[in-house]
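User: Let's play a game. I give you a shape written as tokens, and you guess the letters that built it. Ready? Here's round one.
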């Protein structure tokens, strides 16, 4: 068969398989055995329970259900394997145990069909825990075949588009999302134990502030107003600190109209928390504790492997100011640079591209991106950012050109961003005005003045530490996943017909 006829032949074969499965369904329906009319099946055990508790369950009756992934028909007795949320479980199906008619029906089942089995637990001669079926029920008919050998779904694009098949075909994918759920549960448990309260704030907002990002825009028909999807959780959570809640956090979706790559998805999960009466040093301490706790619970150790590199979360995280980091890796000492012109001259000398509107602090940040990030493999807090890139952060008392801010980097990636929160409404208004000027000059990611937030600050906000964590990147780290799409059940994809 030549290359031109092979795809046509494969398509014809698939078409025949699809028709055979529909014919089987039609025959069942004609015989009054339509599986889609079954509304429930009482499951008493899952695969993991049966295997782990064999000693207690041997000879006992159980009721299990799952997708049939393997079927071996051997005359009057057969074996099949059902896959449920915990894994695979073997079932022994014999004609003399379930009856001749039921056995004939079993032999017609297809891989991918969802089946319920009642029977007793035993072990085969090879020692495999098995359910000896006394009753077998087809619960749902699979009208499309699974990928060949049920583990053949390797095309990355197809896996992301058809996550439901990916979860069936690749057990390690299911394990990743089980771990993701565990991570979120443990974060909540960790924070709840420390007196934090989980809250929810609006997703549709008139002013999308709190981060440097381009928002998605839409229109609210009922009010006839333009609104935006939130890009962060910050400004509403700080309002709650003003209201006296003192320790709050939110885990929720945020939306940024930006590119897609291995670390970015336009829709992602962010967690932000705010604690009254502490500062960015308190946020560093809490972050170290949280990351160690999650690694120990999820991975069983504070030393983990990520993409072949050993990451030690057990030792104290290094703390390094942004100027110290830039000096270490570029040789340029920004503490000795006093003006914007000097900073631009240093950028030209080092081949760092900048815009004319950029100030000294902006260029320091450009140097950090160009020379530093890739070297930050082990956990390190980068602290004391320039004020130009931190419009919501409190100034350092001894150096007003810098702010009390840190970012945690692991494996060259930003994992979180934290501040000693700016609570001076007069200073905040001036910083918003500077952001408005940037927006007017064409910066689509600049913040805008938020009058209601300024009103809240004028009511009075206590000294506060705040932090934002990218949950998806955290899950990537703890599940050794190379791409953010590997930890999102349904990542953003370009429509297939485009």
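Assistant: Ready! My guess for every position:
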């Amino acid at each position: 068969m030549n290359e031109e006829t092979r795809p046509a032949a494969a398509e014809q074969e698939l078409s025949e398989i699809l028709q055979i499965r529909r014919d089987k369904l039609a025959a069942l329906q004609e015989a009054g055995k339509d599986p889609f009319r079954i509304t429930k099946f009482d499951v008493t055990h899952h695969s993991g329970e049966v295997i782990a508790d064999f000693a207690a369950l041997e000879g006992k009756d159980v009721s299990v259900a799952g997708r049939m992934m393997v079927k071996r028909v051997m005359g009057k007795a057969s074996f099949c394997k059902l896959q449920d949320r915990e894994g695979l479980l073997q079932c022994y199906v014999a004609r003399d145990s379930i009856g001749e008619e039921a056995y004939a029906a079993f032999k017609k089942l297809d891989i991918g069909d969802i089946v319920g089995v009642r029977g007793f637990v035993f072990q085969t001669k090879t020692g495999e825990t098995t359910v000896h079926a006394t009753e077998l029920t087809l619960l749902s008919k699979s009208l499309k075949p699974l990928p060949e050998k049920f583990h053949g779904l390797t095309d990355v694009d197809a896996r992301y588009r058809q996550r439901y098949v990916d979860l069936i075909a690749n057990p390690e994918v299911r394990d990743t999302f089980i771990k993701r759920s565990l991570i979120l549960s443990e974060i909540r448990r960790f924070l709840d134990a420390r007196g934090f309260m989980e809250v929810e704030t609006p997703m549709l907002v008139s002013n999308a502030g709190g981060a440097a990002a381009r928002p998605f825009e839409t229109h609210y028909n009922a009010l006839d107003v333009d609104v935006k999807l939130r890009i962060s959780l910050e400004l509403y959570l700080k309002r709650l600190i003003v209201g006296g809640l003192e320790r709050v956090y939110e885990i929720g979706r945020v939306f940024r109209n930006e590119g897609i790559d291995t670390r970015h998805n336009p829709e992602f999960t962010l967690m932000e928390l705010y604690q009254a009466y502490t500062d960015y040093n308190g946020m560093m301490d809490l972050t170290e504790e949280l990351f160690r706790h999650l690694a120990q619970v999820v991975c069983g150790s504070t030393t983990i492997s990520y993409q072949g590199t050993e990451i030690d979360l057990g030792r104290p995280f290094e703390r390094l100011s942004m100027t110290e980091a830039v000096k270490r890796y570029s040789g340029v000492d920004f503490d000795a640079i006093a003006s914007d012109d000097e900073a631009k001259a240093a950028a030209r000398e080092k081949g760092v591209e900048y815009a004319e509107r950029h100030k000294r602090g902006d260029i320091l940040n450009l140097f950090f991106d160009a020379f530093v990030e890739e070297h930050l493999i082990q956990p390190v807090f980068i602290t004391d950012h320039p004020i130009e890139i931190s419009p919501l952060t409190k100034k350092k008392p001894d150096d007003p050109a810098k702010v009390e801010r840190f970012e945690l980097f692991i494996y060259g990636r930003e994992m979180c961003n934290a501040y000693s929160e700016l609570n001076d409404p007069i200073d905040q208004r001036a910083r918003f005005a500077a952001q408005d000027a940037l927006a007017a000059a064409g910066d689509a990611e600049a913040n805008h003045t938020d009058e209601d937030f300024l009103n809240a600050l004028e009511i009075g906000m206590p000294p506060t530490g705040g932090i934002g964590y990218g949950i998806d990147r955290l899950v990537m780290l703890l599940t050794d996943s190379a791409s953010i799409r590997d930890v999102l059940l349904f990542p953003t994809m370009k429509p297939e017909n485009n």
